[in-house]
Amino acid sequence: MVRKGVYSISLGTISLCLLVMVLATGAFAQGRGRGGGGGRGGGSGNAGGPPPGAGVERGLGNASNKSGGRSDEGLNNASSKSNGRSDAGLERARRASSNLRHADDDLRDHPGLPRALHTNANDLRAGYQSALNVNPDLKFGNYVAATRLGQNLGTRHPNITRNAILSGLASGRSMGQTLQDLGLSERESKDARRLADDEIKRAKKH
User: Fold this and answer.
1) Distance (Å, rounded) from C-alpha 125 to C-alpha 145?
2) Which of 176, 201, 137 shows the shortest CA–CA distance to 165?
3) Contact call for residues 132 and 161 (beta carbons, < 8 A)
4) Short-list 176, 106, 75, CA closest to 114
5) Cβ contacts of residue 140 below 8 Å, gap of 6+?
């Protein structure tokens, strides 16, 4: 009787152990199914975020592709236009600098010229440099002539000033055309220019 009871107890214990193992195995398998693989709720996934590559760089690439390259072309055109303006400005400065150097040579070789114009070398050079900012192609000889013509004609013709003559030259008119535009006849223009030229030549000899 004792052996039969012990045997019954052993069978019950084994059955209980098997039941516990089955339940534990099922729970483990269920836990792996929920937490593994990086599903929708997994912390290692991309759930809720943008797809790989979606960002600023991808947006710029799409803008270029969708516009058929027009956005890139616009940027290139803007750069080219800016460079064009910069190049033109540098060329103007180069011409003005070259003309100013020639003026320095002229003033050094003819120290009597400023006195004939009732000024000094520094003021004459400064005035010419200022005029070059408006018209970088203005020659020093034309600036000197405009100065003398304004002095000779200003009393009888108040509108004929150095600045008025320089403005005409900057617009592309010749010295003779400018004087006629300011009210002189063709003959008066020639006589005024001849007198100014003679005075300047005499000044350069001293």
Assistant:
1) 14
2) 176
3) no
4) 106
5) 99, 102, 103, 106, 128
What pLDDT, on the 0 to 100 scale, is given for residue 146? 98
Q: In Å, how far are 104, 112, 151 from 119, measured between CA atoms? A: 15, 10, 12
Dig out the tokens for 177 from the structure.
Answer: 């055309």
Residue 51: per-residue pLDDT = 46
DSSP state string for 55-98: SHHHHHHHHHHHTTTHHHHHHHHHHHHHHHHHHHHHHHHHHHHH
For the chain, give the number of residues: 206
Q: What is the pTM of this model?
A: 0.60
Q: Which residues contact 202 (CB under 8 A, 6 or more apart)?
A: 116
Residue 18's pLDDT is 57
Gap between the Cα atoms of 122 and 143, Å rounded: 14
The predicted structure's pLDDT at residue 200: 96
* 126, two tokens: 């400064």
The list of the chain residues with pLDDT below 50 reads 1-9, 27-29, 32-61, 63-64, 71, 75, 78-79
3-state per-residue secondary structure call for 100-145: HHHHHHHHHHCCCHHHHCCCCHHHHHHHHHHHHHHCCCCCHHHHHH
The rounded distance, in Å, linking the Cα atoms of 115 and 124 is 10
